[in-house]
Amino acid sequence: MGKLTSMLGLLLTHPVEFRTLVHFYLYHETKRDITAQQEHPTSGWDRASMRRCWEFLDTTSRSFAAVIKELDGDLARTICMYYLILRGLDTIEDDMTIPDEKKQPILRQFHNLTVTPGWNFTESGPDEKDRPLLLEYHIIVEEVNRLPPQYKTVILDICQKMENGMADYAHKAATNGTVYLETIADYDLYCHYVAGLVGEGLTRIWSASGKEASFLCEQLELANSMGLLLQKTNIIRDFREDVEEKRFFWPREIWAKYGFDEMKDMYEKGDVEHATWIQSGMVLDALRHACDSLDYLRLLKNQSVFVFCAVPVSMAMATLTLCFMNPEMFQRNIKIRKAEAAHLIMRSTNTREVALIFREYARKIHHKAKPHDPNFLKISVMCCKIEQWCEQNFPSFVMLGEKGPIYESSDKRTAIFRAEEKRVAEHLFPWELAAYLVGAMLLMLGLSALIVWVMLKFLPQA
Fold it and tell me: Does 190 participate in catalysis according to the annotation?
């Protein structure tokens, strides 16, 4: 009844969004049903332990669960386990009720504990929402040990790298009371540990599966950059919640120069102008990963993998646009509307469409930018880089038609293209080709005449 009421209210207040949601619910079908009998060999649904893992995925992340389940073949089960392992690691790292002297050895040995039969963790705080996952972690262990070696090796390697980074930051927080990131380089390193490594692991898994090119696993800089775009977007959006829970991820290098001593001063002092300047600096920093993310998407060839990667980055661009120059972000946790999210899911099906999404949001950010903001020029340049990427890879005067490309007649570049096309047609065919043929024939005739002359001149006559 509540959902029906909300949809009716949406129809009256936002009819376009209502239409988008109806279109999504009617026409957007799931690409795969992991519970179907024919999917059991790859999804593991026929095993009680794997069914429990799928339940954990649904309870810990409804947003990621849907796209994970649509991955092809055994990738869905592999990424499910990958996610649950990292979720368990993150839960222990975030749990402030666990003393540091107990937390450190668990974190630094988590990759070994993950393959130790029967291991689970029962000492999480009572308020930890993912406590059940750790209580039944022995089920995770059982399923991880069933993964093919090429996947298991990658997952444990990433887990080991991530756990050491998390342990370092957890120790700093325990000894200093709080952890402030001082520089943008510190911020990048933190985001690398918690998100960039996730992208690295996913990329290596894509290659190991054979569903993506073998060279993809070498594109770790692009994978890291896409992970940083997603993580930095979440950090910007969750500002108020993080500050209230004494998690300070915004680097002091960006916000301290505007006269704030603590991050909470950005909403307590009432200095909205300087706060939004800091906000634009954070968005600017996140946008420098946009073109790398598009470069990464261009390398993907499997449709399910592409959608898995494309939908989050499209939503990240939408969220950055929502947060940019928006004082409401300092007061509460803001999110893009459901209809906008549904629209992005339906559109994020190919690289060209995702590039257009990036360009649309870059234009909105540029439109919202204010000339008196110290970051105005840099924001403009960054938005132009996204425009430039789109024009270089998908020129706007070329459109896709049923019978091939269509060229926009009003665009001057079309006239240049047509002139070049005409020049090639006129000069290469038939004249240049004819000249080559005539030249070749004359050369052959000359050689033949020379041979005949030599034979007549020097060979004795019978």
Answer: yes
